[in-house]
Every structure is written in C-alpha cells, then in structure tokens.
Amino acid sequence: xxxxxxxxxxxxxxxxxxxxxxxxxxxxxxxxxxxxxxxxxxxxxxxxxxxxxxxxxxxxxxxxxxxxxxxxxxxxxxxxxxxxxxxxxxxxxxxxxxxxxxxxxxxxxxxxxxxxxxxxxxxxxxxxxxxxxxxxxxxxxxxxxxxxxxxxxxxxxxxxxxxxxxxxxxxxxxxxxxxxxxxxxxxxxxxxxxxxxxxxxxxxxxxxxxxxxxxxxxxxxxxxxxxxxxxxxxxxxxxxxxxxxxxxxxxxxxxxxxxxxxxxxxxxxxxxxxxxxxxxxxxxxxxxxxxxxxxxxxxxxxxxxxxxxxxxxxxxxxxxxxxxxxxxxxxxxxxxxxxxxxxxxxxxxxxxxxxxxxxxxxxxxxxxxxxxxxxxxxxxxxxxxxxxxxxxx
Length: 393
Ligand code: SOE
Description:
Blueprint: E1 3-10, H1 14-29, E2 34-42, H2 46-56, E3 61-62, H3 65-70, E4 76-79, H4 86-95, E5 99-103, H5 110-124, E6 130-133, H6 140-150, E7 157-165, H7 182-185, H8 189-205, E8 209-217, E9 222-224, H9 227-233, E10 240-242, E11 248-255, E12 260-266, E13 275-282, E14 285-290, E15 296-301, E16 311-315, H10 336-353, H11 361-379
Parallel strand pairs: 1-2, 1-4, 2-3, 4-5, 5-6, 7-12
Antiparallel strand pairs: 7-13, 8-11, 9-10, 11-12, 13-14, 14-15, 15-16
Helix pairs in contact: 1-10, 4-5, 5-11, 8-11
The chain binds alpha-L-sorbopyranose.
Alpha-L-sorbopyranose binds next to α8.
C-alpha cells in the first residue's frame, strides 16, 4: 500500500467541493505512488465546515486554517478559500514545510503573487513543492492541443482568440457576493475567468504576453447585500452595496513569439453558462476548443490536399490521449470534475517524485502580472482613437 499523502483543505465552497471529490477519487482511478488521505478541512463557519467534512469524507475539521497548518498530520495544504486569503495561507503553509496547491488566480494583487512566488522558490530548495490550480490544463483535449502545437502541427502561431462567457450575475438583483467585492476577490470576470484564458494561451503556445491594451466595464454598479450580511446589520433586505470589480474585461495583446491575441471575459453573456472557447491560427493550420464540448478538439491542416480540406474533429478519449489511461473506453467522455481529478494526479505524482509541478507559483505570478497590466491599461482609459462623424454623411 503506497504511503499516505495527508491533505488539509481550506475552504468549503464550490472549489472546496470540486477538490474534495478529486482527492477522494484520484487514487481509485490512477495508479499513484502516494495515496491522498482526506485528513482535515478548515472553514470559519463551524456548522458548514462540519457538514462539509461529513458530506465530502474529511476525517476531521478545524475552525481556523492556522490550526490546520500547525498539525503534524498534514503534508499538503490545498487552498480553495477566496483570493484575499491565498497569500497569507500559502506563506504560512510553505514556512511550515507543507506542500501547497492554491486555486487560481494565485493572489488578489501583484505584490502578493510576487511574495508567494518568492516563498515557493525558497521552499522548493527545501523539497517543499507548490502548484496553482489552473485545472483546464488537465482537460485531455486541451493537453492534446498543446502536444499538437509543440509538435509543430500548426506551424508558427499567429493568432490566439480566447473568450470565457458566463451569465450568472446578469440579473441586477443578484446579491453582492464575495466575488463582486475587490477586497475579497481582487477582480471580477478578469481574475476569475480571464486568468484561465491567459494561462491557457501560454500553456498551449509557450508564448507569454509582452504587451497589451485593455478595457473593463462594470454594468451593474450596486447590488442588494446578501441576506446574511443584512442579517448581521439587522436591517431589512433593502440595503445595497457597491460592486467594486469588473463585470467584463476585454484586451488585445502581443506575445513574445510574434502571435497577436484577443481575450474576452464576461459574466454578462445571457445563455452562456460556462462557455470557454480558444482558437489558435498558425502558418500550417488552426485548432479550436469549446468547453461546452470539452472532449473534442478541432484541427485544420492547411498543408493537406485542398480537395479534402476541413476541420477534423478529434475526440480526445483514446487511451493514448492525456490522462485517458485511467478513465473510460473510447467515446465515453469526461467532464468538468475530471479536470480536478487529473490535476490531483499530477500534483501527487510531482510530490512523490520531488519534481516541482506545473503551473508553478512563478507561472501564477506571470498571470497576475497580466491581470495587473489589464487593470492598469483599462484604468488609463487605454489608447483610444475617439471617433466623431457628422450626421447625415
Ligand atoms: C466561477 O466563475 C467559476 O467557478 C470559476 O471560479 C472557475 O474557475 C471556473 O472553472 C468555473 O466558474
């Protein structure tokens, strides 16, 4: 029986649930050198974290993440708390000699991300490893797309075209949850959705962004406070608060390898629930991926016989495709949750081998620098060519 890897999870929201499922499942699917154990989960709300421990199979629970990190029966700290807590928890965990998996984006600010990347580099010299949870990299079709680009199948990459569209706050009466407050979330659609696009563009092409121009918009400027918050103030449900993050972020960029790119992240695309799409155009061909059909990647070979040209739909479910060695027979498909199980597999294998996993905190710092650049560019009003025209032309 492989040795245990004792996990301590911080947070019990959507990501806490996804990570719990992944830790429960990963050693039942992949043949791993270490077996993750769900040792403890930490959260501020005692009733909620006790319920999460029972429901998701954690052996114990803590009211304070600091107490969890102090325990000598914890090897890994998995951070799924809101972004405002990422830096403090990661720095304390690394100093305590715990391996760290931190949800994306790495931090709420560039300064925090720099401190985390520096601490992770020092910790790595002591054999303490860390990774950022850009889970979409673990979608087999996207991992296959990366391999095709790395093998030169698209030639020189000239365009990256990435969009991530949701609509869960299109209703102006949706309450002012933590993701809509800068002090908790750092940014809005930009950091929550745009961070995935920035990381994927680098993951797929190996090219980093060297410069950009951006705009952001907040369509709904204030919202009703969440009932819990109102309850605390004792006032009836009429109190409202200011939205302090972007609802949408759009930016154009140049990449180090010569590609030009467009990025769009919004939570105001009615009907688009989790629609992430990325397309690459190169000198020898193109490919596109749409998360709403996440087992497929479509590839166009510009060097093929014109009479037979067209996009080829590759169903990334063959045993030789990334991660599929452990899953189902061809054509049975994977889902969103499998990206977290695949992520847990990569993390456990890296820890067992003592090899720094990717994406590293340094990769997370790069993404944070792009997010910071977008907000700086948007804040300066971008380089806009004002357009005027005379009526009746
Ligand atoms: C909310 O927008 C969210 O849960 C993101 O935070 C995740 O990263 C994304 O995978 C799904 O949507």
